[in-house]
Specification:
By secondary structure, the chain is of the alpha/beta class. It has two domains: 272 residues, FAD/NAD(P)-binding domain, CATH 3.50.50; 149 residues, Elongation Factor Tu (Ef-tu), domain 3 (Beta Barrel). It is 31% helix and 16% strand. A six-stranded antiparallel β-sheet has the order 10-11-12-13-9-14. A five-stranded parallel β-sheet has the order 6-2-1-7-16, with helices on one face. Strands 3-5-4 form a three-stranded antiparallel β-sheet. A hairpin with a 6-residue loop joins strand 12 and strand 13. Helix 1 packs parallel to helix 10. The longest helix has 23 residues. The two termini are 17 Å apart.
């Protein structure tokens, strides 16, 4: 590596920050460019890097789950995102949830203090021309229109768009704690969730108002394509009167400690910060208008006087048709100097986005140090995501969270819990072999 060589990263979200960290820890110079605060996307509000705009949860920490396994693989690869998530975590049962302000502030400070990382605050309007120095595009699903148009021109493919909604956040002191109770499902953990119980009558009234509520209209040119793992609550309700009771409002395992009765339905709230001053409405992504959100969500028992720190919203998410465009190293097939990372590549979720940033950072570092880029083993969670991006049928390609369905098929049929354990053990063994053989 010559002294003048430097990797450019466009986008300061989870993927871009993780890529910058992986490069810097390998002694590589980095120029990290982010358009905030000069311009904000419709969902961003903070000047910090690594801002979380939806839930504050990074999902399960159980290594026998697919996302828990992915976290463990990332820990073993010195992930900045996972380390700082643990440093700023808030109670959430078996899930890893963070204080979003402390999380973003800590990552921003660590990157700003690193002498190998230059942070530039400006908007990039076009994909840079080919160069011997790699560039990582990690601008996320809310990539600005000029850069998205440039990316579409580069790929020669029509870019795809779908819609994602974010859930409201309520102030804890506005909740009626005579009604709301603290409990984790099946008593799993110390009771990190607040629960708003509903009887049949209150549930029927709620779903009726939800069905008749007023929603933010789509623009004439917009075609709503929702990600199934993050459906707006009203879309779930539109699929039947009972769908919410078998989804985000499932009451199973949540008996009220005061009465020992299982409610007809439950709305769960999860801590947004360590102080417990704000709570996220779990699974309540929505495109209701702001006045309707206040009116309808205050029908929920215990939330009659709820005050909202943030209301839900809807925004466009953009991603590319990766199976036709990317190598398994996350380099473009026709532009090996150019990497794609994060949700823009076609993964879904905070952890998955950061994982793609991790791999892009590792491979960009290898290129500037004169080594060949690497591909993670398919038996690993990291490798399964890469396979999804590069080996899926382009005609059926959709963004995906990590899940065991993306992994190579099991040789033998075993029960679900044992299968998760076996997959985890195999994945971590393969990861260790890969790290040793490739000097990662």
């Amino acid at each position: 590596m010559t002294e003048s060589r430097r990797v450019t990263i466009i986008g300061g979200g989870l993927a871009g920050c993780e890529a910058a960290w992986q490069l810097a820890t390998r002694g590589c110079k980095v120029r990290l460019i982010d358009m905030k605060p000069h311009r904000f996307s419709p969902a961003h509000h903070s000047e910090n890097l690594a801002e979380l705009v939806c839930s504050n949860s990074l999902r399960s920490n159980d290594p026998t789950s697919a996302v828990g396994l992915l976290k463990e693989e990332m820990r073993r690869c010195n992930s900045l995102i996972i380390a700082q998530a643990h440093a700023t975590e808030v109670p959430a049962g078996k899930a890893l949830a963070v204080d979003r302000e402390k999380f973003a502030s800590a990552i921003s400070a660590l990157l700003a203090d690193n002498p190998l990382i230059e942070i530039v605050r400006e908007e990039v309007l076009a994909i840079p021309p080919p160069s011997e120095d790699p560039t990582i595009i990690a601008t996320g699903p809310l990539t600005s229109e000029p850069l998205a148009q440039s990316l579409a021109t580069l790929t020669g493919k029509e870019r795809l768009a779908f819609y994602d909604a974010i859930a409201p956040i309520v102030y804890a002191d506005s909740l009626n704690m005579d009604v709301v109770y603290c409990k984790s499902r099946y008593n799993d953990g110390p009771g990190d969730y607040l629960n708003c119980p509903m009887d049949r009558e209150s549930y029927q009234r709620f779903i009726s108002e939800l069905a008749d509520g007023q929603y933010m209209p789509l623009k004439d040119f917009e075609d709503a394509k929702y990600f199934e793992g993050c459906l707006p609550v009203e879309v779930i309700r539109s699929r039947g009167d009972e769908t919410l009771r078998f989804g985000p409002m499932k009451p199973v395992g949540l008996a009220d400690p005061k009465t020992a009765r299982v409610p007809y339905a439950v709305v769960q709230l999860r801590k947004e910060n360590r102080e417990g001053s704000t709570y996220n409405m779990v699974g309540f992504q929505t495109k209701l208008t702001y006045p309707e959100q206040k009116r309808i969500f205050r029908l929920i028992p215990g939330m009659e006087k709820a005050e909202f720190a943030r209301l839900g919203s809807i925004h466009r998410n953009t991603f590319v048709l990766s199976p036709e465009l990317l190598q398994p190293t996350l380099q473009f097939i026709d532009r090996p100097d150019l990497f794609l990372a994060g949700q823009l590549s076609g993964v879904e979720g905070y952890v998955e986005s950061a994982a793609m940033g991790l791999l892009a950072g590792i491979n960009a570092a290898r290129i500037v140090t004169g080594r060949a880029p690497v591909i993670p083993p398919p038996e690993t969670a990291l490798g399964s995501l890469v396979n999804h991006l590069t080996r899926s049928d382009p005609k059926k390609f959709q963004p995906s969270n990590v899940n065991f369905g993306l992994f190579p098929a099991c040789q033998q049929k075993v029960n679900k819990k044992i299968r998760g354990l076996e997959r985890s053990q195999l994945a971590l063994a393969r990861l260790e072999e890969w790290q040793k053989s490739e000097d990662i």
